[in-house]
Design goal:
Vanadium-containing Chloroperoxidase, domain 1; 9 helices; globular; single chain; 2 domains
């Protein structure tokens, strides 16, 4: 299943790339639907109710990932403790979260692609030139438009949806995609992202989710006993490393104390001789 969904996601990405490369103005048209030329603003972005909806939606992925993060941290702190969430599941959720919304979206793309946001381009009252999705190096230095960070977070909910029982899985995944599309659409309506920013955020994030699912949870690959044993070894190695570091720091402080006492004794003898 994961392999088929991965191939379908990649195919969708190629199709979207072609569409938005051939018709880059489609991004401007989609953004113009939410822009008011009379005020020069995106009205929805100034609506407190919609801002509340945005803020609530923002925290949903963090609430979903929190139990897995807690379980992994607890395992690293107390290596002998049995994990209450299967290691493969916890690593799948945390790994895809870090790789998708974390590294790929925010570290690699948003701060380096340089694409100005809709409310920054000339067509919507800004000063920057519009840049199509495929051309990096626009008039934006950091936290730029491509791709949507909040859209990536929202589309990541496909990961926990894939853990639903098989009969409910299609509905759960459909709800996750709808959630991601709705959150991303709200960012378009706010004038903070182009439509392609949202769609590619979905493609990239779901691709990461499928890769991690295939590596950790695909039939024949899942091995929770082995993963938990590896986590225990990592935890004990960390404990030894931290203990060694603290011991080294303590030894260093002891040496400094000895040197200070020795210097004090020398100064005291000199003072007595004077």
């Amino acid at each position: 299943m994961a392999r088929r969904l991965l191939l379908a996601t990649l195919a969708l990405g190629v199709l979207l790339g072609l569409i938005f490369s051939i018709f880059p103005g489609f991004d401007l048209w989609a953004a113009s639907l939410f822009f008011d030329p009379e005020t020069g603003k995106f009205p929805i972005s100034r609506d407190e109710d919609w801002e509340t909806v945005r803020n609530l939606a923002y925290w949903v992925p963090y609430l979903l990932i929190a139990p897995s993060v807690f379980v992994l941290i607890r395992k690293l702190v107390f290596p002998r403790t049995k994990m209450v969430i299967a290691p493969s599941v916890a690593l799948f959720l945390v790994g895809s979260f870090i790789a998708g919304p974390g590294v790929l979206t925010n570290l690699v793309l948003k701060d380096n692609w340089g694409r100005p946001r809709p409310n920054q381009v000339e067509q919507f009252g800004g000063k920057a030139d519009f840049e199509p999705w495929w051309r990096p190096g626009g008039d934006c230095e950091r936290n730029c438009s491509f791709v949507s960070g909040e859209g990536s977070l929202a589309f990541w909910t496909v990961a926990p949806a894939m853990l639903a029982p098989p009969p409910a899985r299609p509905f759960a995944m459909g709800a996750a995609v709808l959630f991601g599309t709705s959150v991303g659409g709200l960012r378009v309506a706010f004038g903070r992202h182009f439509l392609s920013d949202v769609l590619f955020a979905g493609v990239f994030t779901v691709t990461m989710v499928m890769l991690f699912y295939y590596l950790l949870l695909a039939p024949g690959r899942r091995n929770d006993a082995r993963l938990e044993a590896q986590l225990e070894r990592i935890a004990f190695s960390l404990h030894r490393g931290i203990a060694g570091l603290l011991s080294g720091i303590g030894t260093g402080f002891a040496r400094v104390g000895t040197m200070l006492r020795h210097s004090g004794q020398i100064l005291q003898r000199r003072s007595d001789s004077d």
